[in-house]
Amino acid sequence: MTTPYASSRNYWRRFGWAVLTAVLAAAGAFLYIALVDLGTEWLWPAGPVGIRPFSGSWRVVVVMTAVGLLVGLMHRYLPAREIDVFDAIEEGQLPPKLVPGSLLVALASLIGGFSLGPEVPAGILAGGLATWLAERSGWDEESRRTNILGGVLSAYSGLFSSPFATVVAALELPHKQSRRYFGTLTITAVAAVVGFALFFIASGQPFGTVLRILDLPVYELALWHIPVGVVLGAVGAALALVFGWLLRLLARLFAPLNQRPIVRGGLGGFLLGLLALALPLTMFLGTDGLVIVTEQAVGMGTILLLVLVFAKMLATAGALSAGFIGGPIFPLFFVGGAAGTALHLLFPAVPLALSVSCLMTAVPAALLPIPFTLALVVLLVTGIPATEAIPVFLAGLVANFVTHGFGLLAQERD
């Protein structure tokens, strides 16, 4: 007979600390995102100048170069780096000494208009806080892992406004296959709801700005949509491998400047500013760009959409290689959405909502170990009902299987 996991004092101690960490992590993430929004509105009051090629302003180049120099200066004097939050969850710790510098660099990167998302700094803040509390409380390994998992999922639940979608990540990340793990899932679920509720109270609105941002034509699921989901999953994996190749190539090109971070940051900011001058939609995390490409697809045309797919990957890979800090999920959502829109123009029989949602899921799912979580988030972003969602989940699963199951992602990193 299995020992009841909720009957021990240690379990409720873990529960209490996880909820406290969830409150602190969600509050910190909300304040951080609010600071990013305020800084962005101040520096870019009009947003990108235009959506057409070469419709940007030279001010963009000047500002991004200046921000790049600032980021390089931060790297020169502060310990900071891009941290894989999912690896930190698996290890049960995230070095607190890296948190202040990394958050400052990420703040400058996001406000500066670079093609990065807020999920990595939000996870760094939550993970660093959880680790700091654990180090001062002398927790055992299980408590440390529960706390960092609950803290990060609390921050992400508020950020994505999807508490139980993000809890699925706790099932997808490495864990012991035991009935006792449901005790940890209960803790993380409560932490996620706490994070969502705190964002709800602080923002005064029930849902975040990323939910239902796309207004896509409704489609009815047909049997042939299922193999289309498989094909789109493979396409998403191919795009993710291109992104991985770009990241590896640009990292090698910037490597000689790693000991000269100010030069690296200034050069990276200047080059990415030129890219933004040519294609303003390569700036920022990409949520507003997603609305534009899906609503104005016909006017933009297939060629421009495909150019934007590659340019957005280049902008994100370039930013990460040049020392800027931020998340890839939101930019890769844009990549998948733009690619799905282009595919719909090429093959009008494939519903726009189907192609967009499948590729929005598949591209990041090929790189990250949470395909079902990403599929759930995409469904919330696109508003596709669960009854039509089979191809979306299938696309994410296929993309993840292609890259991880065959080790293709590892080959890209070698």
Descriptive tags:
about 425 residues; about 70% helix; 18 helices; mainly alpha; Clc chloride channel; 2 domains
Describe it for me?
The chain is mainly alpha-helical and 414 residues long. It has 2 domains: 5-203, Clc chloride channel (Orthogonal Bundle); 225-413, Clc chloride channel (Orthogonal Bundle). 71% of the residues lie in helices and 0% in strands. The chain has helices at 9-43, 58-77, 85-91, 99-111, 119-137, 141-160, 163-172, 181-203, 225-254, 261-278, 287-295, 297-300, 302-321, 329-346, 352-367, 371-382, 390-405, 408-413. Helix 6 (141-160) runs antiparallel to helix 7. The longest helix is centred in the N-terminal third of the chain and has 35 residues, at 9-43. It starts with 8 loop residues before the first helix and ends with a helix.
Give a concise summary.
With 414 residues, the chain is mainly α. The chain folds into two domains: 5-203, Orthogonal Bundle (Clc chloride channel); 225-413, Orthogonal Bundle (Clc chloride channel), CATH 1.10.3080.
Helix and strand arrangement:
Layout: H1 9-43, H2 58-77, H3 85-91, H4 99-111, H5 119-137, H6 141-160, H7 163-172, H8 181-203, H9 225-254, H10 261-278, H11 287-295, H12 297-300, H13 302-321, H14 329-346, H15 352-367, H16 371-382, H17 390-405, H18 408-413
Helix pairs in contact: 1-4, 1-5, 1-6, 1-8, 2-4, 2-10, 3-6, 4-5, 5-6, 6-7, 6-8, 7-8, 7-16, 9-13, 9-15, 9-17, 10-13, 11-14, 13-14, 14-15, 15-16, 15-17, 16-17
- State the CATH topology of the largest domain: Clc chloride channel
Structural domains: how many: 2
- How many distinct helices? 18
Return the CATH class of the largest domain.
Mainly Alpha
- Which sequence of SSEs, written as H and E, runs from N to C? HHHHHHHHHHHHHHHHHH
What class, by secondary structure content? mainly alpha
| Total beta-strand segments | 0
Provide the CATH architecture of the largest domain.
Orthogonal Bundle
Gyration radius, in Å: 21 Å
Q: Which parts are unreliable, with pLDDT below 50 for 5 consecutive residues or more?
A: none
Helical percentage:
over 70%
The CATH superfamily name of the largest domain is Clc chloride channel
First-residue to last-residue Cα separation: 47 Å
Shape: globular
Proportion in β-strands = under 5%
Indicate the mean pLDDT.
Answer: 89
Largest sheet geometry: none
